[in-house]
């Protein structure tokens, strides 16, 4: 999967830019505030329906403009490019695929699977469980056609049970929601566990090419899986009624990464944590490729920040070995080696103007 063409209009400092990216690495170089991250935002908007820097539509639109638009052509390897487009206004949006309007962001995501490494990538390991749940759910969304619906039904049942817990004289209705939530939760848990187990050897392989460290990874369910979730929910009704919410289930599940038995977020430096997150992203790409034969597009913002020179070389070597299309931002091109120059396409960004450039040999 790769983008063969992309046009961005009115996204932050970028008034208009049309790009013909390479199938491999596309590196955008420029000073801070030049607009290079806005390129990645535009691609993310096209594939997800929103910016990765926040959900407020108005902030992404160039000051003084009413809307922003992004369009692109996606080559899925089937011989014909798929044209996609999205327009965002301050209070709404409209998206089309091959001229037909689509109403769900999931339709965009299925046609343009994206993996993002934001500047605060360490949050995957340092913040709450939601980030790590989304990490697993992204893979399952693209691999298991029914998973998106399953997850939606689970969280709908969870909201209903939580509302029922706060109502008086609710025993019969609560019993029904216990049954529904327990059955759906068991399926969600099964999918997440299987994906984590499949991902682990891919993570180890990716990690070994980037850094010399051993990491253990395990998914925990959010309840004692020695018993069916339905039983646990029924047993904890009085506790949950006092709390006013459901205290156990897949919504409490977590992906744990440890180094020598210590949480990776506590054991590793910021640079090492970033390399671990990169290895996870690369493993995700391998997972999708092996499971369904689709390669995602990678968006890697400030890729080399907090990495020493040796680590940068290893990361680029591992990235090129993936053979995926990647859009990368950097402040300077000085540390890129000859292979990156020969394999990739370079762009200079300044004041919202994007220009392709070639290396000047000294």
Automatic annotation (TrEMBL):
Matches recorded under InterPro entries: DNA-binding_RecF, P-loop_NTPase, RecF/RecN/SMC_N, RecF_2
SUPFAM superfamilies linked: P-loop containing nucleoside triphosphate hydrolases (SSF52540)
UniProt superkingdom: Bacteria
Molecular-function GO term, any one: ATP binding
GO annotation, cellular component aspect: cytoplasm
Location(s) in or outside the cell: Cytoplasm
RecF/RecN/SMC N-terminal domain: residues covered: 3-350
UniProt: ATP binding residues: 30-37
Keywords assigned: ATP-binding, Cytoplasm, DNA damage, DNA repair, DNA replication, DNA-binding, Nucleotide-binding, SOS response
Main location as per UniProt: cytoplasm
HAMAP family recorded: RecF
Summary of the function given for this chain in its UniProt record: The RecF protein is involved in DNA metabolism; it is required for DNA replication and normal SOS inducibility. RecF binds preferentially to single-stranded, linear DNA. It also seems to bind ATP.
Annotated protein name in UniProt: DNA replication and repair protein RecF
Organism of origin: Candidatus Kentrum sp. FW
Gene designation: recF
């Amino acid at each position: 999967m790769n983008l063969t063409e992309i046009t961005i209009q009115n996204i932050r400092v970028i008034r208009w830019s049309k790009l013909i990216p390479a199938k491999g690495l596309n590196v955008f170089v420029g000073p801070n505030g030049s607009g290079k991250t806005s390129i990645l935002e535009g691609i993310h908007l096209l594939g997800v329906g929103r910016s990765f820097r926040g959900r407020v539509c108005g902030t992404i639109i160039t000051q003084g403009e009413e809307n922003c638009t992004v369009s692109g052509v996606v080559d899925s390897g089937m011989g014909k490019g798929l044209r996609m487009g999205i327009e965002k206004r301050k209070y709404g949006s409209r998206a089309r695929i091959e001229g037909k309007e689509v109403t769900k962001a999931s339709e965009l995501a299925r046609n343009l699977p994206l993996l993002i490494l934001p500047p605060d990538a360490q949050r995957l390991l340092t913040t709450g469980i939601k980030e790590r749940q989304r990490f697993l759910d992204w893979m399952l969304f693209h691999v298991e056609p029914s998973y998106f619906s399953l997850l939606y039904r689970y969280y709908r049942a969870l909201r209903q049970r939580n509302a029922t817990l706060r109502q008086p004289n609710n025993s019969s209705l609560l019993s029904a929601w216990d049954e529904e939530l327990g059955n759906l939760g068991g399926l969600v848990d099964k999918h997440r566990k299987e994906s984590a187990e499949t991902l682990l050897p891919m993570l180890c392989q990716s990690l070994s090419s980037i850094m010399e460290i051993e990491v253990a990874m395990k998914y925990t369910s959010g309840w004692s899986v020695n018993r069916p979730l339905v039983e646990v929910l029924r047993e904890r009704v009085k506790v949950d009624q006092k709390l006013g919410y459901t205290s156990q289930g897949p919504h409490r599940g977590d992906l744990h990464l440890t180094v020598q038995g210590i949480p990776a977020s506590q054991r590793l430096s910021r640079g090492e944590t970033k390399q671990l997150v990169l290895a996870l992203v690369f493993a995700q790409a391998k997972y999708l490729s092996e499971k369904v034969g689709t390669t995602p597009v990678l968006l890697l913002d400030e890729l080399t920040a907090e990495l020493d020179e040796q680590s940068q070389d290893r990361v680029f070597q591992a990235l090129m070995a993936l053979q995926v299309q990647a859009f990368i931002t950097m402040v300077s091109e000085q540390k890129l080696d000859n292979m990156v120059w020969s394999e990739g396409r370079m762009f200079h960004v300044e004041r919202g103007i994007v220009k392709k450039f070639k290396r000047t040999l000294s």
